[in-house]
Write a structure and sequence with these properties.
alpha/beta, 2-enoyl-CoA Hydratase, Chain A, domain 1
């Protein structure tokens, strides 16, 4: 069953009418194909009009859509011969970060993702995509493994942020995130990160400091959630829409600020409306980005990556 967001109510109403008419039609029902076709066309126009002018807060809602493809969907759709690897070799296995070895278009790669889950049981299992220190230490271990064996790294980021619990802080959350970022910057092989949903704070950057950062059209990437920002600045989480506007968290904003490298178009109405098409589009974008990177030697690759991140913000400050 399709889940509609608050701003999609007119579309939901039309879809409901179309479904009612379809149930009425058939061998023993009325021939109302023309009416169904008319309403379908109207719903399509409404969908196009709505998604052509989404606000940053509405994009935030789309990025969090419960039926949006997760990291596991991209791994299943793009990676063959996938072998998951577990544990940080220090404390425990963190299910919020998935990763392992596989093949992308026949080439061996290391793949890592933050996994939110798709129903109540899986979301609890994956801690809603909020990793603890052991998750980032596992990511670091896999990135270093990729460097050791000369394998490109592909990451799929979808997290509201790192887990903020006392136990995570006690085990060195900040240090684990910093070390993961360091591993991203130091790996001597191509590194492509894709923001597929939410890119929240250091929990996202820990897996996204790559040579090429891709971002799905309706995903978000920010230092803090709109609700968190509103609670700090206005002492009122209801100001989240205003915070989303101010944070410049959309793909268009970040591309203009040169903080990401490319935007991957989503199916009309968001990735959740056609998951297979969204996965295929991401695969094509990764393939296009990976080709030039494979031609670079390790020293040149690392120097280019370093220069890219040092350059961020200079034009804005100037």
């Amino acid at each position: 069953m399709r889940h509609f967001l608050d701003f999609e109510k007119p579309i939901a109403d039309l879809d409901g009418k179309i479904e009612e008419l379809r149930l009425m039609s058939g061998p023993d029902g009325l021939n109302i194909a023309d009416e169904i076709a008319r309403l379908t066309e109207k719903a399509d126009k409404q969908l196009r009009a709505t998604y052509a002018k989404l606000t940053p807060w509405q994009k935030t809602q789309v990025a969090r859509h419960p039926q949006r493809p997760r990291a596991g969907d991209y791994v299943a759709g793009l990676i063959t011969d996938y072998t998951p690897l577990a544990g940080d070799r220090a404390f425990a296995e963190d299910q919020a970060v998935i990763g392992g070895l596989g093949r992308f278009e026949g080439r061996s790669v290391v793949v890592i993702g933050t996994e939110k889950g798709f129903d109540t049981e899986s979301r609890v299992k994956h801690n809603f995509g909020m990793a603890r220190p052991e998750g980032y230490r596992k990511a670091r271990r896999l990135i270093e493994l990729a460097g050791r064996f000369g394998l490109p790294v592909l990451t799929f980021v979808d997290t509201s942020g790192a887990f903020p619990g006392i136990d995570a802080e006690a085990r060195g959350q900040a240090e684990a995130i910093a070390r993961s970022i360091e591993a991203c910057l130091e790996v001597p092989t191509p590194f492509i990160a894709t923001i597929i949903g939410e890119g929240g704070s250091g929990g996202a950057i820990a897996l996204a400091a790559g040579d090429t950062v891709l971002m799905l059209e309706h995903s978000i990437y920010s230092v803090i959630s709109p609700e968190g920002c509103a609670s700090i600045l206005w002492r009122d989480a209801a100001q989240a829409p205003a915070a989303a506007e101010a944070l410049k968290l959309t793909a268009e904003d970040l591309k203009r600020l040169k903080l990401i490298d490319a935007i991957v178009a989503e199916p009309l109405g968001g990735a959740h409306r056609d998951a297979a098409a969204a996965v295929a589009a991401v695969g094509a974008a990764i393939s296009q980005a990976l080709g030039p990177l494979l031609k670079l030697e390790a020293p040149a690759l690392k120097a280019k990556r370093r220069a890219k991140f040092l350059e961020m913000g200079r034009e804005v400050l100037a």
